[in-house]
Amino acid sequence: MAQTFDVVVIGAGPGGYIAAIRAAQLGFKVACIDEWKNAAGGPAPGGTCTNVGCIPSKALLQSSEYFEHAQHHFADHGISTGAVKIDVAKMIARKDAVVKQNNDGILYLFKKNKVTFFHGRGSFVRAVEGGYEIAVAGDKPEALVGKQVIVATGSNARALPGVPFDEEKILSNDGALRLGAVPKRLAIIGSGVIGLEMGSVWRRLGADVTILEGMPTFLAAVDEQIAKEAKKAFDKQGLKIELGVKVGEVKTGKKGVTIAYTNAKGEAATLEADKLIVSIGRVPNTNGLNAEAVGLKLDERGAIVVDDECRTNLPGVWAVGDVVRGPMLAHKAEEEGVAVAERIAGQHPHVNFNTIPWVIYTSPEIAWVGQTEQQLKAAGRAYKAGTFPFMANGRARALGDTTGMVKILADAATDEILGVHIVGPMASELIAEAVVAMEFRASAEDIARVCHAHPSLSEATKEAALAVDKRTLNF
Q1: What is the CATH T-level fold of the domain 355-468, as seen in this structure?
Q2: Residues in domain FAD/NAD(P)-binding (predicted)?
Q3: pLDDT, tens digit, for every residue of 52-66?
Q4: What's the pLDDT tens digit per position in 253-274?
Q5: 193 labelled ligand-binding
Q6: Residue 79 assigned to a binding site
Q7: Catalytic: 454?
Q8: What is the distance between the terminal CA atoms of the chain, rounded to a whole angstrom?
């Protein structure tokens, strides 16, 4: 006999587990299904983000940054360390421990909020009276009925055509996060978030890293001035980035990987590497969902088709996160998950795509929200811009990290903030002020007149807001 739930969530990544918890808070009887396994075969909820994405990559970025500071920057502070060594196995073990803490935290939250968790792969069986039958395939097969179903099955790494991931020499983000040793030569295809973050990790630890990027411009989605500043910093660090390349044949052999490509000048070139990370984007994951059994509509990309409120073509079936349109970001999935749970309860929440922040956790960090200068120019919108460099910020000087700037774009007539772009220390934290300001439709002057603690990096945001009106105080 199938167990019946008010809400069944398929997938326990950021969108799924948050949707399940919010639905339970609203008084619904909720089940959440997830198949991810840890090394021991036990449940590992949290999706790509927790297991092979956001969380483990930040752990490795932190470890590698400490290593680089010990090697190159501690002496500036009068700290002598002697010979510095890296124990990669211990670093990876620490990363795994951080991941497990997050997995266990989600299981605890399910228990606390009375969400029933099922470990296995969830798939549609058929529509039934009052809902949908969902099968759970795993060590303990189950049959569930959900009156409402939320699909949050995430995304998978996109492979190069004809070059499947073997996670030994051809690596996705998964393999890139569990290398057992520092490769002498590391090639990366794609200079997006994953490419730059993983390139930074292994470059700091001693790898000779080359990134091949098909686009003629670096970080085309980022404000051009900010992207140029970041590229300067990466070049100085020794991260080699080739733009405008066309990748050809990729061969694996006993010694490693050979990548044939055409460079921006149209010249044939070859890159030899021990390992290759392919980071050319992600594709929606509907594998095994059995969408056709109930007539769930997918688009040409394989994404589930939804409206602005995450409703699918089927009554009572919703989808959120990477498996639908919009940016593939964990925090976007979380916001959609909360919104859907509240819509099921009859509420009217709103997710504003224009104020979703983006972050690249390199050093310097890159973070932005809203429109770029090139987008405003293309739209013909009159705007004012203000920038402030971290080299003029007292806290940044004390940290010894003065790379980058804060940039604010505001409407020329109303002064409403249209975009905020940061490259520099702790940009990931600083961007939150900008998101709040834009959600409240603040003007640049609003930020300029708010008292910011001194000394703090956030003063650079205040000064950039003052710069919009050409009245900075410290530059």
Answers
A1: Enolase-like; domain 1 (3.30.390)
A2: 5-337
A3: 999 999 999 999 999
A4: 999 999 999 999 999 999 999 9
A5: yes
A6: no
A7: yes
A8: 71
